[in-house]
Specification:
The chain folds into 2 domains: about 55 residues, no CATH class; about 300 residues, Aldolase class I (TIM Barrel, Alpha-Beta Barrel), CATH 3.20.20. It is about 25% helix and about 20% strand. It is built from 8 helices and 20 strands. It has a 9-stranded mixed beta sheet with strand order 16-15-14-13-12-11-9-8-20. About 50% of the residues are buried.
């Protein structure tokens, strides 16, 4: 994007993927919600608004904050392990999850929470100066600020940086194709494996998310990992976990890493107990027995559940403690030094000392 073409960071930016309706409203075509708006109205995501006869992205160039994180925090265990990632989000979300763990950002309706303003080029420059290997669109779902994320991805690629999307994958096919074509890696939240859960707990549907997973896996070069937050009594039964992991193997393949993460009481589910470690261990066992080769546990201390094992000889190749890499044994080609089996993923030719579990807040000026 040329300097003269850059949107006014205070005024938002013209949005894409919408059309006019015969009744005078305009319809957003970004995600399956298909919000239909009169003048001045915003979609459920809050950030896509009708202004006059057009739709604008109100959060273009505006962030809820920037941080440098370990890539394992996204979580991504097979994408440049041990590296740091320059992370940011905006505000709003197109899902209505009752269990949201980032509700203060994703459910925000206050634009003054967006303290930092920065152009895509400035973000890319700041990320490169920080030493990060990639930039992540995270904290809230980047699908709703797709134009900003895509422009930033182009700026990052121009400087040799990779891009990461952390998303629920609730997006229509046309913008999905354009969005993930610009991403080098994605972690998609597969929140459950029943449409009942999606409708009752998130106000959305399961099918579009499954379509997104298959699109990323089979129609892009974007590296894919999946996370499921296990909530006691809602999505953690043996029957559901068995069905979900069998579907992943059959439709995405056994090499896709799957992360089971522990729920903690938050937002509208303060009365639901935290997920015990035993539930994550049980889920991991089911997934492995169904043929998945790389299954991890998160939000708990679990040495085995944090380790990448060779799918050939079962030797531990990457050992982790939470988000810190303690041991790394892959060779320059991402293969096991014991048996030569290649591990699926995107690995750097040489592993540098891991970034660790640090989280470093950053400020990025708009200039």
């Amino acid at each position: 994007m040329n300097e003269t073409d850059r949107p006014d960071l205070d005024a938002g930016s013209p949005a894409r993927w919408w059309h006019a309706l015969p009744d005078g409203r305009i319809q957003c075509d970004l995600c399956p919600r298909d919000c239909k708006l009169h003048e001045g109205q915003r979609g459920l995501c809050f950030v896509r608004q009708r202004v006059g006869d057009e739709m604008v992205l109100a959060t273009y160039g505006r962030s809820s904050g920037f941080c440098i994180d370990p890539i394992e925090k996204k979580p991504l265990n097979h994408f440049l392990p041990g590296s740091s990632v320059f992370s940011f989000g905006t505000a709003g979300c197109n899902l209505a999850c009752k269990f949201c763990q980032n509700w203060d950002i994703s459910k925000s309706r206050e634009m003054d929470r967006l303290l930092d303003k920065a152009s895509p080029e400035r973000i890319a420059e700041a990320a490169r100066a920080s030493g990060a290997a990639s930039v992540a669109f995270t904290y809230n779902d980047p699908v709703i600020f797709a134009e900003y994320a895509m422009d930033t991805a182009d700026a990052c690629h121009a400087l040799g940086l990779k891009t990461v999307a952390v998303t629920a994958g609730y997006i229509h096919p046309v913008p999905r194709r354009e969005f993930f074509a610009r991403m080098d890696a994605a972690n998609v939240d597969l929140k459950a494996f029943t449409d009942e859960f999606y409708q009752q707990q998130t106000g959305s549907r399961l099918a579009p998310v499954l379509d997104t997973l298959q699109h990323i896996r089979h129609e892009t070069d974007c590296w894919l990992e999946i996370t499921t937050l296990l909530i006691p009594g809602l999505n953690d039964s043996d029957v559901e976990l068995d069905a979900m992991t069998r579907w992943i193997v059959d439709h995405l393949g056994p090499e896709v890493p799957l992360h089971f993460s522990a729920f903690h009481p938050d937002y509208k589910m303060g009365d639901v107990p935290a997920t015990p470690k035993s539930t994550l261990t049980r889920a991991r066992r089911i997934a492995l027995s169904n043929g998945l080769r790389h299954v991890y546990t998160g939000n708990v201390h679990d040495a085995e559940g944090g380790t990448t094992f060779c799918p050939g000889c079962a030797e531990p190749l990457i050992e982790r403690d939470w988000h810190a890499v303690l041991h790394y044994a892959l060779d320059a080609q991402g293969a096991c030094p014991h048996c030569g089996t290649r591990v699926a993923g995107r690995f750097a030719p040489r592993f540098e000392r891991g970034f660790g579990r640090r989280r470093i807040p950053m400020r990025v000026s708009a200039a």
